Amino acid sequence: MESIVTTMVGREREREALSAFVAAAGGRALVLRGDAGVGKSALLDHVVARAAAESHRVIRAAGVEAESELPFAGLHQFLYPLLSHLDRLDEAHRGVFDVVFGRAADTPPSVMTLGIAVLDLLSLAASQQPLLLVLDDGQWLDAASIEVCGFVGRRLTGSSVKLVVGLRSGVPSGFDTAALPELPVTTLSEKTAEQLLDLRHPGLDPRIRRLVLDEAQGNPLALLELPPHVRGGRAGRNAEELFGYTGVPLPLRLQQVYGARIESLGEPVRAELLRGALDGVGSGTAADHTRGTRYRMRDADEAVACGLLDIDPLGGDFVFRHPLVRSTVVQTATPNERRAAHAALAQLHRDDIERRASHLAASTVDPDEQVAAVLEAAADSATRRGGAVTAVAWLTRAAELSETREERSRRLGSAAYVAGHSGRLDHARQLVLSDTGSGTDDSPSSVVASGYVAFFEDGDVRSSQRQVFAAIESMRDGGVQESDEVLTRLVDLLLAINQYAGDEDAWERSHELLDSLGDLVPSHSRVYQDAWGDVVRRGAGVAERVDRAFATPADLEPWDVTRLAVAAYHVDTLSRYRPQLQRTVDREVETGALADAMTMLHLIMLDQIAVGEWDDAEDTGRRCLHLTTTHRHTLFVRHTQAYLGLLAALRGQVDQARELQATVDTWSRPRGIGFLTQITDTIGTTAALAEGDYEAAYLHAIGITPPGTFTPYAHQAPRTLLDLTEAALHTGRTEQAHQHAQAAHAAGLPELSPRLHLITHGALALTTPDPTDAHTHYQQAENHPAATAFPFELARIRLAHGTRQRHTHGPKAARQPLNQALATFELLGAATWAERARAELRATGLPTGTTTTHLTTLTWQERRIADLAAGGLTNKEIGERMHLSPRTVSSHLYRVFPKLGITSRAALRDALAKMPGDQKV
Questions:
Q1: In the CATH scheme, what is the code of domain 365-438?
Q2: How many beta carbons lie within 10 A of that of residue 103, not counting itself?
Q3: Which end of the chain is flanked by fewer CB atoms within 10 Å, N or C?
């Protein structure tokens, strides 16, 4: 290695930068970017040599194009040499690595969770000796590994770990947006190119020397590799004969050079190289430590002699000298040779469903039902691991290999279904057309896919509803006897369309249809049926059923997670599942079920609004709006705008709220999308309440449901209970307000969800004339164990409580609930509500300039962590609830203690109780 470094010609700037990179204190990351063959690998050798001289431990890895779709395949190369440190990690992080290494069947970790675990592992490994991670050909790394490497690379400051990545220019990869510092590696200058050529190939014929320099154009690999090929009787050939027509990119010409060497090998050796290349065997000195299940090339010394292979000094295996060799081996093989190699590799990987499927798909020409079934199983595996895009390709190939028209149609329908969920609506449409274009009638599978496309893309609920309903009836009348995947998809799609339509007649007709199907409707679909439609009348027990369904996350497809989380939203238990949603979103956004990720972002935003994380909610909404707009999911664009409008209304940003309200309403109402028009009415109600325009608030609220009842299948009817009640009271409609609060209690709303318990008793307290009864209802609302999980509603109830106390028990009794309300409104950023609370406090004779001084010394996140810690949760449990690492939780508590004037966790509860606005989060 030292000889490579000392004979390097030129590159003074790059070598100087790399030496400084190694010598610098602390951890950092660096990307070397340049064209193929430009010398990145030599510079990586240089940085390795420098690091070795500085007593660093070096771990090398290389991206493999054949593995670019296998999640975490690249990360394994870095982690495998560090497995001895796993026992020193906490149980949670060991569990993360068990999933990544396939030793445990569980939901794949999010980028953040895995990234934090990797950082901890690297820190442990570097605690005794500085660590250098070297990655060559990073553009071929799988997307999951790239995300983790980018996450880790941005957070190495303060550690003893350095990361350097070599990337090929012109090949897009996730590193392009990883925001890591870059060092460009350009071609050599003419003078330096001549020096390198003369040093490594002295005495060349002047004509050949000129030819090499002109064709290499400063590419070091070409300068080193071309001369031996040109010599040996080929000097008399002209440039056109030797290199092909001018303008062909240099890497292709280098592949031609390697191709000639490959062709000179015996057939058995070529076959060995081909099997190794197709199975992703590494190149150079970057040992592939995960190659225990890979093909090991044998009897290939002839290829070593030709300069095509090297010997891995660690494992003794044959490895390709350069990635271009591997590519050339594949490209120069005949189709029959490639198919034979893939067939052999499929047998080698018979216990690895996804890898076996990849090779079977490439080795099979004629329809083969067994191969198609393997591909279908692999697609299911890929989907569960966050690889929906890969699953679409495998399902499409499975359809091509199907032996019957029915199986072909079913698998094309599945491919279109997954494509729709992965945000590829155009692809889904093409798959539907390729099925229906075969001359058959629209199959149930095609109806599923086309229904999703029409639904997601433009909110076409009416025609989609009719089409799906007819397809379900057809399957029922056709005598379907057992639970069927296509039937389940049709049922779930019908329920989703019904939820958006919000039409009572359609829901009632659907209930009749589903009841006629009996046990053919799965239990999950029954949960959706009860939660998504009319939670007031059908929501009893839904929370418990959702909890049972989430108990086995490894069994859930991403769309199952999404749908169950929507059900959890309707019964206000979404917070407990948010960490799983976040992990799934992080996994799905790049290559997974993108459409489901959009809905998950909606749900995360809703939960952030509910628990008071309004800044984070806006960030989530903006992220979702970008995704939905980019992928032309118009329905989700309007849905996102509706939630952003609701958030603006809560904050008192009424102009922005009403602009978004008008945009969404104008689009949704003509299409009959009641789900969104109800939200626009809620925006109008909320904005009017923020301004104190109670008449307008009342008129908007009764557009959702009249007082004294809850309109069937109007999902916002129970959610706006407090809004309608308060607006009615302030406009003199006392009887209607009391009637509505009593109707909520009679309908059993307090038993359906913790939020409905809070606002039902709040509404009863507001409208009950008897002071004793009112006090009882205020206590039931404010002292409910989950009340503090809904800070905005709780603050509104406390504001009303304080106002009533001032009138009935005097100023002193009013100050505590008013202080608590003001503190919450200020932390949330609900400006108009905060001003209302200040006015009430001023009426008690208390100056409001300092009412929340020491409460605001804690950030909202610090306040939540402190309250959870005071409740007895460990740092790990708090981290799981707030999707933070235990170390981050500890850091927050370290800052909280001095702010509260305490020194121990045991003193938290008393210190928090003394603060105005004592509230849990």
A1: 1.25.40
A2: 10
A3: N
